[in-house]
Structures are given as structure tokens and as C-alpha cells.
Write a structure and sequence with these properties.
Layout lengths: L9 H6 L4 H16 L8 E5 L9 E5 L7 E8 L3 H7 L7 H13 L4 E11 L9 H20 L2 E9 L15 E11 L15 E6 L8 H12 L10 H7 L7 H10 L12 E4 L4 H14 L2 E4 L7 H10 L3 H7 L4 E7 L4 H10 L4 E8 L6 E5 L7 E5 L2
Parallel strand pairs: 4-5, 9-12
Antiparallel strand pairs: 1-2, 3-6, 4-6, 7-10, 7-11, 8-10, 9-11, 12-13
Helix pairs in contact: 2-5, 4-8, 6-10
């Protein structure tokens, strides 16, 4: 018999890096927050069979939806941005990044995100419930509760795992090392699915402004920080204001887009008919607009009045040494979403966006290029430069 065989109790498991008691305390805390959101959405009915046990069974059913409504799930996360968010100690805002990612992937097709489930992997909960690390991980979930309340999401359930060496960071002094992702359950109806099939030459493009990084380009921003402030940028006092800017949480456009796409209407009639919605996540303009739509469908577009990049994005691009082409392949440049619509709808759309708390403006147009699709971007990163993709 092996000499390694023995009785493994909670104390030894804790010595091995897993604090079951602290994990259960946190799960009970998170489960309590979830229950407070069960009434947030009129189309989600949660059935709770847990009898008060935080890890007990529960299920849900969609209710009061138009006939023909289908169910959909999107999965995404907040990438490497947690390294920046932790360095800025803005854990309360962190959920806005991954919620923006997966909710945005539903609303861009005309869908309606309604229910959230999250998967949080951390290096450690900390030494005890009074530790700064445990406080930070609680802040994550409190921030998610705020997002759920603001956007009528049910915060359904989740998983939190203490993963030890599987979770790391550039910053070995980080308060909390974590990887956060999740799933959005929601609804889609064939009547208002947005695929781009209604795009026509001459239609206008409207940009919805974003003042932070969102959850993409974090790796390039961290590289820019190391080039400007050194490999230990996260503890440099001179870097502090820039780290805080880079940690700016993502704008959540989705409550507005759900409304505009018709989900507030009994017959699902859109407030403004959007022919295409592009969520400028990883790959930005080249990946999400050019490759996914223009190139595939033979359209061209000119983007001649984009928003200026957020200050930290501008600086990070300069520190990293980007040219305009690389910049707009990596970053959204100041707009988290662009929307294609008829010219006569632009003014109303911009007005309604403002009423919902979003900045929007006309930024370009769908054009024709004699069978040679291309995308032309007038750079706001380096004024006077033009980025041309395709056209050959």
C-alpha cells in the first residue's frame, strides 16, 4: 500500500490550496444575490426547489412571449482585462465587461438577453473572510447584481472555483487573480432577426460611443503599459491614472437595443428598423464588419466620421507603436457598436439613443464598388491617414 494513502480532512485540503468553508460562505452569499433578481424579468419564471439551501435545485421557464419565439444561448468572457481591472481595484465594475460581450452578441442579431449564469475561476479566496482578496471577490458579485437590476436580467446561478496555479496574472502582487466568463440565455424571433439581408447601398451607418476598452485589446494595452512604464507597470505610481482609465467598464447598450429591435412592442415591430448591427469586439472592424459582412455579401462602406478614440486607447496605441491599420484591427476606436439603417431613420435613432443615455452619431455609409467590396476608414487615431481594406 502506498505511503501516500491517508485520511484527507478539510484542514489538509485547505493546506493544499482549497478553502471549502470560505468557498461555501461565498457561494451562499452569491446565491442570496441571485434570489433577489428572480423577479427582474417578466419573461422568466424561476422555480426554486432549494428549500433555502444555496446549492439546492432550481429551474426556470420562459413565459408570456409571442408565438414563435425561440430560445438562444451565448457564451463569452472578459478576456485578460481582469488584470487591468484588479490593478485599478475596480472589481465592482468587472461584470460589465463580460455581460457586454455576451449580451451584445445576442442583441446584434435582434435577440433579447434575459438571464445570466456565470463561471468565476479564482486563484484563491484569500486567508479568511476579512481579507482584501475575499472582499474583492464579493465586489465582483455585487457588481453583477447591479448590472442585473439595471438591465432586467435574472441572475440565475453560477460556479465559483478556487483553481490555484491554473489562474495567474502578469501582476504577481494582484489582490485577486481571476478569469470570469458566463452565459446569456435569451429569446429570438424570426420576425426581427437581424442578418444583414436588408442592407442596401446608400444606407447610413450610426456609431454608438464607447469611452473605454470594452473587453478586447487588453493584451495590447498591457504590452503598451510595459513598454511605457516597465514590466512592473501595475505598481508604478506614474501609471496609476492610466490604469484606472483602461479599467473603465464597458458601456451596456443592450437594454436600448432590445427596445429598438421591437421587444417592447406586442407585435415585435422595431422602433427603428436596423438592417445590420455590428458589435465591434475581437477583430474589430476587419473581423466583425469587413470579414463577417461586407466581404461576404459584396458591399463596400466608408466610415468617414468615427468617434475619436478614448484617451487611454489613443495613448496605448501610440505607446505600442500601432499604425492606423493595426489600431483599427485591434481596437473599436471609440464605438462599441455600429448600426446600418435608412437615412430617414438616423435622426430619430440618435435622439432615442440620447434619451437612453447613449451618445450616437452618423459615421458613414454603405456604398458600391463595382463588384470589388472594400472598407474605407478615415482614421481618428492618426488624423489624415486612411485605412483601406479590400477593393482589389
Amino acid at each position: 500500500m502506498s505511503d501516500c494513502v491517508g485520511i484527507v480532512g478539510p484542514d489538509l485540503y485547505k493546506q493544499d490550496g482549497v478553502n471549502v468553508d470560505l468557498g461555501d460562505l461565498y457561494s451562499k452569499f452569491a446565491g442570496g444575490l441571485c434570489k433577489q433578481t428572480y423577479q427582474n424579468n417578466p419573461h422568466i419564471l424561476v422555480h426554486d426547489f432549494s428549500g433555502g439551501l444555496f446549492r439546492g435545485p432550481r429551474c426556470f421557464e420562459p413565459i408570456d412571449l409571442p408565438p414563435g419565439t425561440m430560445l438562444d444561448i451565448d457564451v463569452d468572457g472578459n478576456g485578460t482585462k481582469p488584470i487591468i481591472t484588479d490593478a485599478a481595484f475596480q472589481h465592482r465594475q468587472s461584470s460589465r465587461d463580460w455581460v457586454a460581450m455576451y449580451a451584445g452578441d445576442k442583441t446584434r442579431y435582434g435577440g433579447y438577453p434575459a438571464l445570466l449564469a456565470n463561471d468565476l475561476n479564482i486563484k484563491t479566496f484569500g486567508k479568511d473572510r476579512d481579507s482584501q482578496t475575499f472582499h474583492a471577490v464579493c465586489e465582483l458579485m455585487l457588481g453583477l447584481k447591479e448590472v442585473a437590476d439595471e438591465n432586467n436580467y435574472v441572475m440565475y446561478k453560477g460556479e465559483t472555483a478556487e483553481m490555484g496555479p491554473c489562474v495567474s496574472s502578469d501582476n504577481l502582487q494582484a489582490t485577486l487573480m481571476y478569469i470570469w466568463s458566463g452565459m446569456a440565455f435569451g429569446f429570438v424571433h424570426p420576425k426581427n432577426v437581424i442578418t444583414g439581408k436588408n442592407v442596401r447601398v446608400g444606407q447610413k451607418i450610426v456609431a454608438l460611443r464607447e469611452k473605454g476598452l470594452r473587453a478586447n485589446g487588453g493584451s495590447s494595452m498591457r504590452k503598451a503599459f510595459s513598454m511605457c512604464f516597465g514590466d512592473n507597470w501595475y505598481i508604478q505610481e506614474a501609471a496609476r491614472p492610466y490604469i484606472e482609465l483602461a479599467a473603465t467598464p464597458s458601456v451596456l447598450y443592450d437594454k436600448f437595443l432590445v427596445h429598438m429591435n421591437g421587444w417592447s412592442s406586442p407585435d415585435l415591430t422595431p422602433i427603428v428598423k436596423s438592417s445590420l448591427i455590428v458589435h465591434l469586439t475581437g477583430g474589430s472592424f476587419r473581423g466583425k464588419f469587413w470579414e463577417d459582412f461586407l466581404k461576404r455579401h459584396g458591399f463596400s462602406a466608408v466610415l468617414d466620421d468615427l468617434y475619436d478614440p478614448p484617451e487611454i486607447m489613443q495613448l496605448g496605441g501610440e505607446w505600442r507603436g500601432f499604425k492606423s491599420s493595426g489600431f483599427y484591427d485591434t481596437f473599436h476606436g471609440g464605438q462599441g457598436v455600429i448600426v446600418v439603417m435608412d437615412k430617414e431613420d438616423v435622426g430619430g435613432y440618435i435622439r432615442l439613443a440620447a434619451e437612453a443615455g447613449h451618445e450616437a452619431k452618423e459615421c458613414g455609409m454603405i456604398t458600391s464598388n463595382a463588384g470589388k467590396p472594400q472598407l474605407i476608414i478615415e482614421s481618428k487615431f492618426k488624423k489624415g491617414e486612411t485605412v483601406t481594406i479590400g477593393g482589389k
